[in-house]
Amino acid sequence: MSKTIAINAGSSSLKWQLYVMPEEIVIAQGIVERIGLNDSIFTIKHGEGQKFELVQDIDNHEIAINMLLEQLIELKIIGSYDEITGAGHRVVAGGEHFKESIVIDSEVLKTIEDLSDFAPLHNPAEAQVVRVFEKVLPHTLNVAVFDTSFHTTMPAVNYLYSIDTKYYEEFGARKYGAHGTSHRYVSERAIDMLGKPAEETKIITCHLGNGASITAVDGGKSVDTSMGFTPLAGVTMGTRSGDIDPSLLQYLMEKLELTDIKDMINILNKESGLLGLSGVSSDMRDLENSDKDSAKLALEIFADRVRKYIGSYISVMNGVDAIVFTAGIGENDINMRKEIINGISWFGCEIDDEKNNVRGEERVISTDDSKVKVLLIPTDEELMIARDVEALKK
Ligand code: ADP
């Protein structure tokens, strides 16, 4: 049986899912956390609720992958390495170069490494993982699936910043967006649910997780998205600020006596967003359970920023048929979905409280006479990756 592994490697983590394809059955999944630190955590879930966990130092991604492959044999999840015929690697930055998923050869791998400036924490780790796969599984087809590909259909009017175009031409300074695989998956599902030809649909997809982004999908294609040159831009996120006046950086650096812009960016990436606003947590659940005013205000700001993007994307597309909620918050946070949609009732959206009273299930959650459909669609980036590998195997 042919198996495909979907890999999502970060600088210190490696998440994976193993599929039987083309049946699309998940037979095992796992995560290696704290790679390169002490007490790394290695977990595999398989079979019917079986779990394997090991805590030990795992120095690098190569060791992590070798451990993973050995355990797949040990736990009898696979009989031999040859069964893994495909590996799909999530790559954060594909720049303008990669408009779709692609089989990785030495030239593609070099381009992924060359794009490291755009995602310094991710692309080098992802390239390293591909190299390990080439070494330990030489017969496996490696495919790169880029976070940015879905957004390469954005028109210049939406991807250019209002700065001298020579910065775009010389250095690639433009909006690239992220979470593309998720926006692609949920928008395709939404088009199916709307039952209209893709060309006639206008959809706004809200991927609201720890990282959050909103995308305008017109005729099945991304035409604008809230993340920018990097995932720091857009709506308020767990620990990221989202949009901010760049002059504030200079002002704060002077006040904080910072000399390295990287320290300032680090504050915006790691200490801002819901965490910075509330002083409580970056996790929605903690904020909803807190009785602090700062937590309530953080929730209001989150809902406000999402609504503002929805409003602006209705203008970008001159209309909207459906608004989609997905990812951790979008799939599970009944109150937040209601908060967001109640604030844009003027556009003709109305939540059905009974239908909305659900977590992680694909369904319509607006009332029957709501002019704009509101859809809850659990995302599945790994499945999208496995499908892309399958399509490229042929
Ligand atoms: P990541 O970007 O890390 O993949 P997720 O998509 O897993 O993030 O989303 C994490 C967010 O989802 C957290 O803010 C978490 O609080 C929120 N979340 C998860 N479950 C619930 C729930 N039942 N109610 C509200 N928020 C939830």
UniProtKB/TrEMBL annotation:
Any Gene Ontology biological process = acetyl-CoA biosynthetic process
Name the InterPro entries for this protein: Ac/propionate_kinase, Aliphatic_acid_kin_short-chain, Aliphatic_acid_kinase_CS, ATPase_NBD
Active site (UniProt): D147 (proton donor/acceptor)
CC annotations in GO: cytoplasm
Q: What one GO molecular function would you report for this record? A: acetate kinase activity
**Coiled coil regions, renumbered to chain:** none
PROSITE patterns with a match to the protein in the record: ACETATE_KINASE_1, ACETATE_KINASE_2
**What is the required cofactor set for this protein?**
Mg(2+); Mn(2+)
Q: How is the cofactor bound?
A: Mg(2+). Can also accept Mn(2+).
Task: Cite the annotated pathway.
Answer: Metabolic intermediate biosynthesis; acetyl-CoA biosynthesis; acetyl-CoA from acetate: step 1/2
Q: What is catalysed by this protein?
A: acetate + ATP = acetyl phosphate + ADP
Q: Secretion signal: which residues? A: none
Q: What class of enzyme is it?
A: transferase
Q: Where does ATP bind?
A: K15, H207, L208, G209, N210, G211, D283, M284, R285, G328, I329, G330, E331, N332
| Alphabetical UniProt keywords | ATP-binding, Cytoplasm, Kinase, Magnesium, Metal-binding, Nucleotide-binding, Transferase
- Functional description taken from the UniProt entry: Catalyzes the formation of acetyl phosphate from acetate and ATP. Can also catalyze the reverse reaction.
The record's note on quaternary structure and interaction partners says: Homodimer.
Q: Which family does it belong to?
A: Belongs to the acetokinase family.
Which named protein is this? Acetate kinase
Organism (species): Vagococcus fluvialis
Q: Which gene encodes it?
A: ackA
